[in-house]
Design brief:
- The model has no long low-confidence stretch (mean pLDDT 91).
- The protein has one domain: Phage tail protein-like (STM4215-like).
- Helix 2 packs antiparallel against helix 3.
- A hairpin with a 6-residue loop joins strand 2 and strand 3.
- The protein starts with a helix and ends in a 5-residue tail after the last strand.
- The radius of gyration is 15 Å and the shape is globular.
- With 139 residues, it is an alpha+beta fold.
- It is built from three helices and six strands.
Length: 139
């Protein structure tokens, strides 16, 4: 059974003191929960899968793919500060086991983009990451 890279990355961020100092426990997969919207804008992270490369082919149980990491903040500066904490938490990932997923590598692909949420105009910084991870559970 394929492992969930989103859950693994969220676990890595939950273990990082600098990220948690900003977001507390506001780390989400795929989208911002509706119940969080009345409290926005504030520091939180959303990790979501995006179109990527797919499996390695054949019997190799390794997947290459892409993640978008959205860092929200009360101001654009706060969102960028959170993005830096997230970047520092992820940039040196090499063969790390998180939530049963062996992550071979994470690599920022194009740097960060300062944006505004399309629906609510909340400040956010978006960064895309390439991952290579095992499709089978790691001990």
């Amino acid at each position: 059974m394929a492992r969930d890279i989103t859950v693994a990355v969220l676990g890595m961020l939950m273990d990082d003191e600098d990220v948690i100092a900003i977001v507390d426990d506001r780390l989400y997969g795929e989208e911002l929960p509706e119940e969080e919207c009345p409290n926005m804008p504030r520091g939180c992270v959303v990790v979501r899968r995006v179109s990527g490369f797919g499996g390695m082919g054949g019997d190799t149980e390794i997947e290459e793919g892409m993640l978008d990491v959205a860092c929200y903040g009360q101001t654009p500066f706060d969102a960028m500060r959170l993005r830096l904490a997230v970047y520092n938490a992820l940039k040196h990932t090499l063969r790390s086991v998180q939530e049963g997923t062996l992550i071979h590598s994470l690599e920022s692909t194009a740097g960060a983009s300062s944006l505004r949420d399309a629906d609510f105009s909340w400040p956010l910084v978006l960064e895309s990451w390439k991952f290579v991870a095992s499709e089978v559970e790691a001990a």
